[in-house]
Write a structure and sequence with these properties.
Elements: H1 12-28, H2 31-63, H3 74-81, H4 86-99, H5 103-111, H6 116-129, H7 131-136, H8 138-147, H9 150-164, H10 166-178, E1 181-184, E2 194-197, H11 200-212, H12 225-238, E3 254-259, H13 260-264, E4 272-274, E5 278-280, H14 282-290, E6 294-298, H15 304-311, H16 316-326, E7 341-345, E8 360-364, H17 365-372, E9 377-380, E10 386-389, H18 392-398
Parallel strand pairs: 3-6
Antiparallel strand pairs: 1-2, 3-4, 4-5, 7-8, 9-10
Helix pairs in contact: 2-4, 2-5, 3-4, 4-6, 6-9, 9-10, 11-12
The protein binds zinc ion (2 copies).
């Protein structure tokens, strides 16, 4: 129970009025003014408000008043009462604690000259190497923060930590290293979730490898950046070591169990079963089989000879000749180079189509999938290229 204190309660009505002003401004602003508005609402509003929040939090932290609410600490209190995640709560508490002893930083943050994330980085650095060290270099760190985005500034701060406390920086890096993990989930509804925390070394190597697996963009590529990264990961995982530019040679096989009926596309046939991946539709089995990516077929029976042929890789000479002829994905307007493609059987080998040049065309992975799972047709155009034809059902839907 406060005896003396603010004369009135917190200025809620004024804050709401301010929020209303901004909402109204964004409603009325011309398109070319919005960018400036977004910058200003952070500089003049959100960042300084975060600074005020951190200052209030510091006093509350010191007072221990949060215990009156039954909270075991300031962070649990912020988490539950201010509706923030544990990490976001801890970050704000740390800003409050460290910036008290970094007056220049506190001032820049409150004025809107320093963004929230930059303030958080400086607070973390002060926590790691001691606030006295940061204060000695405060001016130059703030100067760097002015011109850098938070990612670049993190680099500068880490470098600074290393200069003033190499042993501490190493210990910090070792602690971070212990937190690395990668989790690959079980298949659910045809999807698998992966999540993880990578060391910067692994992350950098992963990004470099993914970038190398991002094919040149095709015309009309409608995939989102996230979908493109996913597809790059698939390319990465399926690309054999030392593969040639024409895509010839063995590729890592996916182990799949499928019946001959599934492979032949017979109605009522069971789904295929991908090792680690659960059930996959018959058309997916047929696509894998199309470019000889199958390794295990149960109940071969009368298709024995074909199956045996198909589980072998397309002969490199054939593949090279097809690559020479098609020079990449044959879908009109695509043109992804041979190493991004599968050799598609125009007439599937389960229907007697031979694995020879006359029956093989190169399709990139997304286009190959459209032909199989998406039920798109292929039509040879005058220039010898192939055009994808919308599935009948989709045509009538979009008509
Ligand atoms: Zn195919
Ligand atoms: Zn393509």
């Amino acid at each position: 129970m406060a005896v003396a204190g603010a004369a009135q309660g917190p200025p809620i009505a004024q804050t709401q009025a301010l929020v209303g002003l901004w909402a109204e401004w964004f409603r009325r602003a011309d398109d070319d003014e919005i960018g400036e508005g977004l910058i200003k609402i952070r500089e003049a509003g959100i960042d300084p408000l975060e600074a005020v929040f951190a200052t209030g939090l510091r006093r509350f932290d010191k007072s221990g008043e949060y215990a009156a609410d039954g909270a075991l600490g300031i962070i649990p209190w912020v988490r539950t009462r201010c509706r923030l995640s544990g990490g976001a709560a801890a970050e704000r508490v740390e800003i409050g604690r460290q910036l008290e002893q970094l007056p220049q930083t506190q001032k820049a943050f409150a004025n809107g000259d320093l963004g929230y994330q930059h303030a958080a980085i400086l607070a973390r650095t002060a926590e790691h190497v001691g606030v006295a060290q940061v204060r000695k270099a405060e001016t130059s760190l703030l100067k760097a923060a002015e011109t850098m985005d938070p990612g670049q500034f993190t680099g500068v701060a880490k470098n600074f930590e290393h200069r003033v406390d190499a042993a501490g920086a190493l210990a910090e890096a070792n602690r971070a290293y212990e937190r690395r993990y990668l989790h690959v989930g079980e298949p659910v509804d045809g999807l698998m979730r992966i999540d993880g925390v990578l060391t910067t070394e692994c992350g950098a190597a992963f990004k470099t490898a993914l970038d190398a697996m991002t094919p040149p963009p095709a015309r009309d590529d409608t995939r989102t950046p996230g979908q493109r990264r996913h597809d790059a990961l698939l390319e990465l995982a399926r690309r054999p070591a030392g593969s040639s530019v024409n895509g010839a040679g063995p590729r890592p096989h996916l182990i799949i169990r499928a019946s001959v009926d599934t492979l032949a596309g017979t109605a009522g046939a069971p789904a295929g079963e991908l090792e680690w991946g659960g059930a996959v539709p018959a058309e997916t089995v047929r696509r894998f089989a199309c470019d000889s990516a199958l390794t295990r077929i149960i109940g071969k029976g009368e298709l024995d000879a074909e199956v045996t042929r198909a589980v072998r890789t397309t002969p490199p000479a054939t593949r090279r000749a097809v690559a020479e002829r098609d020079r990449g994905c044959v879908a009109e307007g695509c043109g992804r180079p041979p190493q991004w493609t599968d050799a598609h059987h125009v007439k599937h080998w389960t229907q007697g189509g031979p694995t020879t040049m006359s029956n093989l065309i190169l399709l990139c992975r997304p286009h190959h999938r459209m032909v199989h799972e998406g039920n798109w047709g292929l039509r040879r155009s005058n220039n010898g290229r192939w055009a994808l034809v919308q599935p009948v059902a989709a045509q009538s839907r979009s008509a």
